[in-house]
Target: Amino acid ABC transporter ATP-binding protein
Amino acid sequence: MSVVAIDQVHKRYGALEVLKGVSMRVETGQVVALIGRSGSGKSTMLRCINGLEAFQSGSIHAAGHQVEQDQAKLRALRKDVGIVFQSYNLFPHLTVGENIMLSPRITQGVSKADADILARKALERVGLADKFAVYPEMLSGGQQQRVAIARSLAMRPKVMLFDEVTSALDPELTGEVLLVIEELAREGMTMLLVTHEMNFARSVANITVFMHQGKIWEAGPSAELFANPQTPELQAFLSNGV
Ligand code: ADP
Ligand code: MG
Model:
C-alpha cells in the first residue's frame, strides 16, 4: 500500500518551474532515497509532501491525507508525516525532554504525563534515554540531530521525511545519525530521505530516486540503480557529484 503517492506534481516559484510533473510512490515499510544535484527540486518535493509549500497542479496523498492548503487538514497531515531538516532548531531554553514534549502537548493536546512517556520512549529509540533532563547546548551536533528525530518520532508519524539531516554535521558525527535512521528502517518505519550519503542510500534504501532539473530522471531498486545508471546525467552525478 502506498503511504505516499505523488502524481504529476507541478510547482513554480514565479516564473521558475521547480517540479515539472513529478510522480512517485513510497510503499509501507519502504525506505526511499532521493538523490540529485543541488537545485534539482528535492527539498521542494519534501516540503510539498507535508504541505510546507503549495503546488500548482497534480496531487499528493500522504499517510491517508490528501495534501491541500487548509489549516485544519495541514495539522492532521503533519501529525502523521514527520519531517526532519538539516538544521535541528531545538529550543535552547528548554531541556531535551521539554523540546520533545512540546509538539504532542500543543498540537495533539496530549497530557503532560503522557507526553513525558512519549518523549522518553522516543529518546530511547535514538539512543539518548539518559539525556532527558539535559539542555541542548550540552549535546554534540549529532546528538542534537538525534533529539530532533526523537521530537518527530514522539508524534508517532506514519512516514518520516528527512532532508539532508547529516549535511550540517562534522563528518565524525554523521555516522551516529545515519545509524539511528538505519535502526528505524529495521523497525519498519516508512521513510523518504534526501541524502548526499551515497553509500547509505545504496545500503539502506530499498529504492533510490534520482531527480534532475525538476524531474524524476531515474528510479529503481538501489542496488541496480547504483550498479547500472542508465542515463549520462546519473552517471555523471555518481562519478563526480554533478
Ligand atoms: P534541492 O533541494 O534539490 O537542492 P530545492 O528544492 O531547494 O533543490 O530548489 C529547487 C529550485 O527552486 C532551485 O532553483 C531553488 O533556487 C529554487 N527555490 C527553492 N526555494 C525557493 C523559494 N522559496 N523561492 C524561489 N525559488 C526557490
Ligand atoms: Mg535541498
User: Anything to note?
Assistant: The first strand starts at residue 2 and ends at 13.
